[in-house]
Amino acid sequence: MTARLKTGAALLFLTITYYIAELIVGSRWHDANPYSWSENMISDLGVPECFGDMGQYGATTPRYICSPWHALMSAEFVLLGVLVLAAALLLTPLLPKTLAGRSIPYLALINCLGIVLVGTFPGSAGEVPGGNQLRAVLHPTGAYLELLSGLAIMIIIARRYRAHRAYAATTLTLIAITIIGMITSLAPNHLGLGAGTAERLAIDPFVVWRILTGLALLIALPRIQRQTT
After folding, report:
1. Is the dihedral of CA 108, 114, 115, 116 positive or negative?
2. DSSP one-letter code for 34
3. Full-model pTM
4. How far apart are the first and last CA of the chain?
5. SS3 of 128, please?
6. Residue 60: predicted pLDDT
7. How far is the C-alpha of 51 from the C-alpha of 22, rounded, in Å?
8. 53: β partners
9. Dihedral (C-alpha) 57, 184, 207, 139: value to the nearest 10 degrees?
10. Which of 176, 194, 174 shows the shortest CA–CA distance to 185?
11. Closest CA to 57 of 133, 5, 126, 113
């Protein structure tokens, strides 16, 4: 059982590869038109077309898109979904034995499906006249599935482990940031923060939560094992 839980925790921590991939792929954009962490959308990193200035298409969030290493980012999205689902299945012994707790593996499956859709059907196609309409529908669908399922998982876990005050407080803070990010993403002009910043406020908390949860479990499991032997 301990080996199973350690593996699940390690897989959660390995979702840190998402940030590594972001940094690598973002750094490969042309110096004349670098990737903007505040204005570019996250999924712009995985767009296979070199669209250039999106303003020429009348995009709602004008920005430059040309990601030479787009395949790495798309592959990372798919890997991320697999890691999330595998970790959830391995860590089921730690989940609450309630209806909400038993729903987490299914929420993880939805989260996995959402992230895989994001990677398999890259974004921005719907912003270009004549763009791929299948991608234009499935990409945002995947993003919403990822966002809402991740938020639900954090809420359930925060309630289950509320006695662990530091962990619960951290989780609640990340939930609050997610909600703020969702509101900012829908607000006019993204409240001046930029489309990329608003999206990261909504999406990144669940990424950070997974990494911190995996790390916390890796640190705590040896102590738990000693106490039970």
Report:
1. positive
2. P
3. 0.90
4. 13
5. coil
6. 78
7. 19
8. 64
9. -30
10. 194
11. 126
Q: What is the model's pLDDT at position 226? A: 60
């923060």: which residue's tokens?
A: 193
Distances (CA, A) of 63 to 57, 184, 185: 10, 18, 16
How far is 21 from 11, CA to CA, in rounded Å?
A: 16
What does residue 111 show for φ and ψ, rounded to 5 degrees?
A: -60, -45
Mean pLDDT is lowest, of 38-47, 160-169, 193-202, for 160-169
Calpha distance 12→79 (Å, rounded) = 12
Would you kindly state where each structural domain of the chain is located, as residue ranges? 2-227
Contact 9, 221 (CB under 8 A): yes
Sequence letter at residue 27? S
In total, the chain counts a number of residues equal to 229
Indicate if the pLDDT at residue 42 is higher than 60: yes
